[in-house]
Amino acid sequence: MTTSATTVPSSAHRAGAPGGGAQAAGRQERRVGTGARRRWAMWWFVLPAALYVLAFFAVPVVNNITTSFREYTTATFYTGEAPFVGLANYVDVISSRTFGRTTLNTAVFTVVSLAATFVIGLALAVFFNAHFRLNSVLRSLVLLPWLLPLIISSAVWRRMMEGTSGVLNELLGLVGLGAVPWLTDPAVALYSVIIVNVWVGIPFVMVILYGGLQEIPRDLYEAASLDGATGLRAFRSITWPLLRPVVVIVLMLGFIYTVRVLDIVLALTGGGPAGASDTYATQAYQLSFRDFQFGTGAALSNILIVVTLLVAALQLRANRRANDLAG
Amino acid sequence: MTRTSPRRAVLAAVLALPLVLGACSGSSGGSDDGGPLELTALDYYTDEPSHSDTEKRLSDCAEQAGATISHSSVPSSQYNARVLQQISAKTVPDVVMVNNPDLPQFASTGALAPLTDLDVDTSRYLPSVLETGTYDGELYGLAPNVNTLVLFYNEQMLADAGVAVPTTWPELEAAAAKLTTPEHHGFAYAAASGTEGTWTFIPFLWGNGGSQLELTSPQAQEAVTFYTGLAAKGYVSTSAVNWTQADAKDQFAAGKAAMMINGPWQIPSLNATQGLRWASTTIPVPAAGDTPVAPLGGELWSVGRSTPEREKAAASVVTCLNAPQTQLATALQNNTVPSDSDSAKELAAQQPQMAPIVDTVTTAKSLTSDSGLKWPAVDAALSTALQAVISGQSSVPDALAAAQADVEGQ
Known about the structure:
The complex is a heterodimer. Chain A is built from 16 helices and no strands. By secondary structure, chain A is an all-alpha fold. In chain A, helix 5 (88-95) packs across helix 16 (294-326). Chain B has 17 helices and 14 strands. Chain B is globular and about 70 Å long. The chains are: A mainly alpha, B alpha/beta.
């Protein structure tokens, strides 16, 4: 079999084109043997990744889907009995009194958070893209919210937003403004949670956009400035079009992160007061782990997954268009 | 080379196989071959010194039962999920701690062994404690120590305002009104979404003869109207809708509230607050002569289903964890009430500031005594209703009608 070793480099080149080796004339017989073994070897290399995906992505998703069609109670964990109930869990979720409000809250939370995070993150990225002293020191400071464990930063924000003794209201009092019921007024609570979520999200947006900005060749700006295009004009004609593929990625990842935010809401308001800051994510969590209604909880989280997939697909399409424009 | 690479891949896969299988099957533990029985225990005492104290008590108790025990703790927020996961993997711990409102849920799974079948002596327990551990007529859990809710008040503020300690609702309201000044509110309670907010309100519902399952009854309407009215009239800060019991305690300790509903576990922190003169009393009742009915809190020790031999050993560990002398020591340390009636009397004698709490416990009921398996639904619905009224989103009848519909829908 020593001769077969010599064929390794040539067939290795063709590994990307399945069946390519079969066309070669001559030592075809021996080739088929090594080719089959080679394909087997290939599958062995793929196997760990495939097992990983199966165990950690496919199984939970399939489990969640089957759970949502069953009546799944605490007793199910012991007996394994979960009668099939068809779409009843979905009907329960959608016809519940709070579904409309939760949907609206989820939409407002996601859109406002994402828009604010993006605008501020972009402004900061452009700001740090210029050269000035202490740039890198300041830039790493902006990353701080990202480094803190969420549960700690939310707890600190919760203290700061406390109605009677929180530092935010004391500051407002110092400049002569009235106290804001940050987390206790149903009309305000959701926006207070959004403020914290924006604060947490800015570093992520800034870092990725900053990376995108660094990729834009400097000479484009130099050439433009010779033609008299600087400042806002340069941003509109150079920065924005060249940054668009990165923007689409940031918005897509940002959307996926934002729509399922759970810990910040739970730590700040627990979804209250009276559901005023409940989103799909908090509602699904509470259905499953506080109310022990695993079936309806799974149904709601499946709705969340479908919404996320739809938006992600739309954004991917937009990305393809952006790439076409840029390229 | 071409021959060896597939072999290596096979080898790697074979080596990885036990990992995959091990992850699926979970731990089995235990031995039938004569060695000491190896029990497992799970609780949510992740904080020190509770964790080490419990570990020591568990291993002492296991030793008496001729076994060894491996103890682990999971944070309380992940606790129920972990226990359910172990139940589904049929690896429920031999000795498992259950927070009292969750007992009906866990007992209904069938994964807990009834203690009555395991010859556990229950003659010395306070009846309210036994009721807390009972589901469907069977005893599943025993709490060494319990706690409940009482009215704490700032002695200095009451004396300065010339207000007597309130014992009825009208007195409580009058006192709260008089104690509300620009510097501080008269009264404070936790109304954050979730169990703490609901729990704090239950004494008012039960004290007025209401039931968790009849939220539209006149008794429930009156209780909610009175309770939320204290916030509507400005005697309780509307920030209470985001206060946990710890937040209410912080307000009280900082002198921003003259009275509060809270539990004895706040006593160490209150004692540590410089210059705070506080005392406690049973929660005021609707009218003079009514009996206060407060909900019991605390953690129960239960036995997970396994083999008869293991269950028996685990049951003797649970009995040992509940020994009267341990109860009194724990009570003195943690400001809880021993569930053994004699030890409870002894505690009240040794620590007079615990006396109102011991009194309240003797007439208290298990938090889930009227709702049972429906407690999670009641908890969510009632907490939402209270928040909706206090934050001005809804009237009392509307909020309670919605809450009742939620409870019945499940």
